[in-house]
Every structure is written in C-alpha cells, then in structure tokens.
Design brief:
heterodimer; A: mainly beta; seven-stranded mixed sheet; four-stranded antiparallel sheet; 0% helix; 50% strand; B: mainly beta; six-stranded mixed sheet; 44% strand
Chain lengths: 121, 112
C-alpha cells in the first residue's frame, strides 16, 4: 500500500525558514517523480514544485521560485521542501504527491494527508 | 487567477449528467500536455479521477469520463449520485517559461 506521510509543518514568523519532509513507502521510490502541492485555507490547489526520479529535472511555481528548494533522498525514500523567506501568503496545507511515472509532467496518483504551514507574526 | 479556467460551480439532480470544462492555452493543453482530473471530498486529500485525458485509474466508476480537444478538456459525470458532491480540479503542465505544473481553480459540484 502506497503511503506518503508529511511532517515539518507548524507556525513560523514571516521571513523565517521551514523544512518539510515526506516519508514514502509501499512503492519503489526512485522509480517515480514527486511533487509538492499546497492548498490555502478555503482555496483551491496550487502546484508548488516537482522533481524527477533522479533529481535531473526540477520545476517551481513562480510564486515560490528562488525561495523554496525541492530535493529528494532516494536512499531514505524521502522528499523534502526547504522553504525560506516565508510570507503570510505561503500559509497552506502542503501535500506530498507521487507522480505516476519517473518524469515530472505526469499525473499525481497518490497523495499524503498534508502538513499545515502557518506564517504569521 | 488560475492558468486553467474552470466554472466555479455546477449542479445537477441525482441520475443526471453534468460536465465540467477546463480551458487552457497553446502553452499548456494546446501544447500537447495531458490533462488530469482530481476529486476532493470535504476534508480529504485529492484523489486522481482521470489521467492522460481519458483514462480512469482502477476503482474509479465508469460514470466518470474525460475528453480533450484543442486547448480545452472536459470531465463528464453520468448517473449523478449524492456521494459525487465534491470539488473537482483539472491539472496539466505549462511550458511558457519553464515547465510548471498548473491546476484549474476548481469546480464545486452540488448534487441537488
């Protein structure tokens, strides 16, 4: 059974940093691209970032480019999102999602339950 | 404002057929990127409903179907049921600057 468990969320002040983690199990992690998607309270889904199976291809939304860094450790079956210079508008539930193939531009076939990030002073 | 445009809401009576549109442009759907659809029930994580424009994952009823033409795509639900009440999102990729994932703004389906 595929499982994605996010962690690392919490309350953080504007301008500070936070690192999210996603622990994956139930599939061969290094065979698939992975993504982060967020959802602000009461709002729709927003794609944040994606990374290919071997980290060779990485993409970011305009809203986070230059502030967020996605990475993965295939030996640890883990996905990460390093977030810096956080803004109140980054407040959201952050989902880790598995891609259906090794490349970034595919569907997201499994999702975690999310970790909540709140940026506020 | 989302790159992919969806109607904010649709509604239908049980047993009816509804469609949800997803309109993009030449740098995303029109560039050949596939469209995928997700269903999000209240308080839960999104679930993949349609992938590769027209394909259903195992376990998704055949009441759900997808199509794509030009710069647009559609999700159709036939034989509407109360449990279909949810938010629906289309998703694709855009290569206008660099390849980025994009979602539609979401459509709230109400079963009357």
């Amino acid at each position: 059974e595929v499982q994605l468990v996010e962690s690392g969320g919490g309350l953080v002040q504007p301008g500070r940093s936070l690192r999210l983690s996603c622990a994956a199990s139930g599939f061969t992690f290094d065979d698939y691209a992975m993504h982060w998607v967020r959802q602000a309270p009461g709002k729709g889904l927003e794609w944040v970032s994606g990374i290919s199976w071997n980290s060779g291809r990485i993409g970011y939304a305009d809203s986070v480019r230059g502030r967020f860094t996605i990475s993965r450790d295939n030996a640890k079956n883990s996905l990460y999102l390093q977030m810096s210079s956080l803004r109140p508008e980054d407040t959201a539930l952050y989902y880790c999602a598995k891609a259906s193939e090794e490349t970034v531009t595919t569907s997201l076939d499994f999702w975690g339950q999310g970790t909540l990030v709140t940026v506020s002073s | 404002q989302s790159v992919l445009t969806q109607p904010p809401s649709v509604s239908g009576a049980p047993g009816q057929r509804i469609t949800i549109s997803c309109t993009g442009s030449s740098s995303n759907i029109g560039a050949g990127y596939d469209v995928h659809w997700y269903q999000q029930l209240p308080g839960t994580a999104p679930k993949l409903l349609i992938f590769g424009n027209t394909n259903r994952p195992s376990g998704v009823p055949d009441r759900f179907s997808g199509s794509k033409s030009g710069t647009s795509a559609s999700l159709a639900i036939t034989g509407l049921q109360a449990e279909d009440e949810a938010d629906y999102y289309c998703q694709s990729y855009d290569s206008s600057l660099s390849v980025e994932g994009i979602f539609g703004g979401g459509t709230k389906l109400t079963v009357l």
